[in-house]
Amino acid sequence: MDDYAKMEGVPFVLEKLVVVDRKAASRGGGDEEEKKRKVVTYFVTQGGVPGRPKLKDDDHEKLVSALKRMERNLGCDVQVFYEDTSRTTWVERMEAIVRSTIVLGVHGDHLMDFAFMKDGEHSTLVEMYPKDKFVRDRAVIAESIGLKYVAWSGSEKYETGNLPQPSRPLNTEEVTIDVDAVVKSVQQIVSKA
After folding, report:
1. pTM for the full predicted model
2. Which among 33, 82, 140, 182 has most CB atoms closer than 10 A?
3. Are 177 and 107 spatial neighbours (Cβ–Cβ below 8 Å)?
C-alpha cells in the first residue's frame, strides 16, 4: 500500500468525489413506504421579500386549495412553504425539497434548491411566469442534472424541447396562471411517478 503521507505537494486529479454526511443519511432512513410517497412542494412568494415576483393573490388561493384537494384524492403529500426564510427555515426547506417529486413556484432564484430534489424518472420542476415571459436559467440546470422541467407562461404550458424564446420578466410583474391546467399537469406527473 502506498504511503500517502510521503506524497506531500503532489497534485491529484479527482475523477469523482463523493461526500457523505452519515448523520444526515441516518435521519433520511425511515420507512420505505414514506420514501415511495409522491411529494408535491409549492414554494409561495406571497407576502415575502419585496420586489420579488409573486402569483396573483386569487390564483395563489385557488392553487393551494386545488393542491390540497389533489392531496386528498390522489394520496400524495402536498407541502406549502414560504420562500421567505423568516417563515420557513433553510432546514425545513431542504428537508421538503429532498423528499419532493415535484417542486413548483413562481419563477426566481428562490427555486434553485430544486437541484437537490429526489432523483427519479418523474422528478419535475414546475416554474410559473407572467404571460409571454420566460428565462431558461432553471430549465438548463434541470436538463443537465436529469430532472424534468415544465414552465407555465400565462395559460401556456412548455416542456423541455418546446420552450419559448427567452423574454426576461420584471420581478415586479404579477404572475397569472390557469390554475386548473397547472394542477391537471401536476396530477398527470404524480400519476406517472
Report:
1. 0.81
2. 182
3. no
* Cell matching residue 86: 423568516
SS3 content of the chain, % helix, strand, coil (to 5): 40, 20, 40
Tell me the percentage of the chain whose pLDDT exceeds 90: 48
Give the three-state DSSP class for 173. coil
**pLDDT band per the 50, 70, 90 thresholds, residue 170:** confident
Task: Output the CA torsion sign for 124, 89, 18, 111.
Answer: positive
**Cα–Cα distance measured from residue 149 to residue 33, given in angstroms and rounded to the nearest whole number:** 26
Q: Rounded to an integer, what distance in angstroms lies between the CA atom of residue 121 and that of residue 109?
A: 24
Other Cβ atoms closer than 10 A to 45: 22
Helix ranges (H only) for 108-160 are 137-144
Cα distance between residue 95 and residue 66, in whole Å: 23
How far CA 127 is from CA of 6, 34, 155, in Å, comes to 52, 26, 12
